[in-house]
Amino acid sequence: MEYELMDAFNKVQEDFISEGMPEEQAEALIKKVIWNLICRI
Amino acid sequence: MNKEEMLAYRKKLFSDVVNHQTPDRVPLCPFVETWVFHYSGISIKDAFLKDNKLLFNAIKKFADDVPVDAVASISNTVPFKMGKNFGGGIYTVNDDGVQIIGSGGRIMEDGELLELAKDVKTFFANTLAPRKFPIFNQSLEKNVDLIKKAIKDMVDWGAYNGEVVGRIEQELGLPVIIKATNYMPMDVILDYLRDFVGISSDVRRVPDEIYAASESLLDFVMDMYLESNLPEDDRWLFSPLHYPTYMRPKDFQKLYLPFMKKYIEEFGVKRGYTLHFFMENDWMPYLDILQELPTGAKVIGLFEIGHAREIKEKLKGRMVYQGGLAASDLKFREKDEIADIVKKTFDELAPGGGFIYGTEYSMMNMNDGKPENFIEAMTVAKEYGKY
Lengths: 41, 387
Known about the structure:
The complex is a heterodimer of chains A (41) and B (387).
Chain A: H1 5-18, H2 23-39
Chain B: H1 3-18, H2 35-40, H3 44-49, H4 52-65, H5 80-84, E1 91-94, E2 97-100, H6 113-118, H7 120-132, H8 140-172, E3 180-181, H9 185-205, H10 207-227, E4 236-241, H11 249-269, E5 274-279, E6 299-303, H12 308-314, E7 320-325, H13 327-332, H14 335-349, E8 355-359, H15 371-384
Parallel strand pairs in B: 3-4, 4-5, 5-6, 6-7, 7-8
Antiparallel strand pairs in B: 1-2
Helix pairs in contact in B: 4-8, 9-10, 10-11, 14-15
């Protein structure tokens, strides 16, 4: 990969916020999906 | 009592017992997990993936036949559909239940604990996720779409389960007590990052690095749960404790206990969460060390083996004892022997409160317990357990 995967997560977070999701909620959602990727599935 | 009153009554049984007060009677909460699907003849795979009415129906059949005061969990704890986006994860589900596949539990290499300790979120995202899921080796735009799809599936899975929980509580008058499962830091490292051989080697070679990684993992988990602003009714976190009894007691005291203690202090003492630990294997050699845990918090310990009365007495004020119904009795005894066994257990463990009656293990398959013994045990317990 020529970029860090966190860039993709950050882009998703920015998109959610620009679509009206509160910043804290978007951040929590990204944290949760990252956690589930490694520690759930 | 109507369903609403029944729900409130049952919730109060648990609320009293975890608040160290004597309830109206001993609450009954066996861990029946995927046993209920075998018992009710409903496909586990379909119930988890296709139609949440099947999930509800399986639990309803169980609750109609077996007098219990709570469903511990609806058991659908892995978001399989989310995993499919990435080519699948470390679990699969079929009609026998949830199985671990491959060796996905070791995705961290030797020498990476300090990287993990430095920044959990970044290390997970930049290093472990692409390593675990090669599908991420694609353009940023495609990964953005992939992550959005995964988030949708994760949210849908929460709604799928939430609807079932709501129906169980409203239509059956039964509380579903465990709303979220969490892991102690060293169990995260064991189950998902380093596997048994890796973590055992780390404990011997680099204990300070394990400690540092555990500190960061606990902070990450605490932030994640606290940021999610769980409603008060949902503040019941379940944690199976996998690794402790494989540690020497002095290693447990040095590397595991500090985080268990902090977890109880932060969630239990300061914020009033109920913390439900599945104390796997034999904890007898660790009981003295557990005296360091705070008193007065809402903590339950489900003990698999050991001397029940001694455990209950030694941990009084620190943990409510859950258990008492042995696998050997459910599997091998005759039905007419069960009543005496239950009464003997209650004579020993019920006095003074601090006791939840249930299986000492998770029932996964029909072989884990004869239905007639199970129904008899709970029926006797409901009557005999009155205070």
